């Protein structure tokens, strides 16, 4: 299916920031995602901040799945002892979009060099919805949202809803 086969559909987004230290006032990454989505006429119907705990992350995922068809997690994707977004979300994905992580790392290398290999960014679909897990830095979310998510979300959802 190429872009010519993208079906008309309404896109709504959920933003879930995974952090034990951020609040709404200092969540520059969550706000950056929100701004980029709104600039591209994608309404944000759910936005929350949860601590780095699998149960909290999954609870937010369940709520987001009821309110949006594009769910973006930011944070908790690294290698530290408390990073567990990937462990929480990967088992819930029905299909993985392997190219998302590959392209994210490829584009990130231009910004941060070889440290891009540490990114565990993943994406996939579940129940016809798109789910993205990206690092929590503002440059990383800006890159992922502007260059990968926004340009392909209608295409991904058209595939995922077949």
From TrEMBL:
Ranges of residues in domain MoaB/Mog: 14-156
This protein's GO CC annotations: cytosol
List UniProt keywords, sorted A-Z: Molybdenum cofactor biosynthesis
Gene3D superfamilies of this UniProt entry? Answer: MoaB/Mog-like domain
Origin superkingdom: Archaea
Query: Which BP terms in the Gene Ontology apply to this protein?
Result: Mo-molybdopterin cofactor biosynthetic process
Q: Which InterPro entries match?
A: MoaB, MoaB/Mog-like_dom_sf, MoaB/Mog_dom, MoCF_biosynth_CS
Indicate whether Nucleotide-binding appears among the record's keywords: no
The record, for PANTHER family, names:
MOLYBDENUM COFACTOR BIOSYNTHESIS PROTEIN B
Give the family, as the similarity comment puts it. Answer: Belongs to the MoaB/Mog family.
Q: How is this protein named in the record? A: Molybdenum cofactor synthesis domain protein
- Species of origin reads Methanoregula formicica (strain DSM 22288 / NBRC 105244 / SMSP)
Q: What is the lineage of its organism?
A: Archaea, Methanobacteriati, Methanobacteriota, Stenosarchaea group, Methanomicrobia
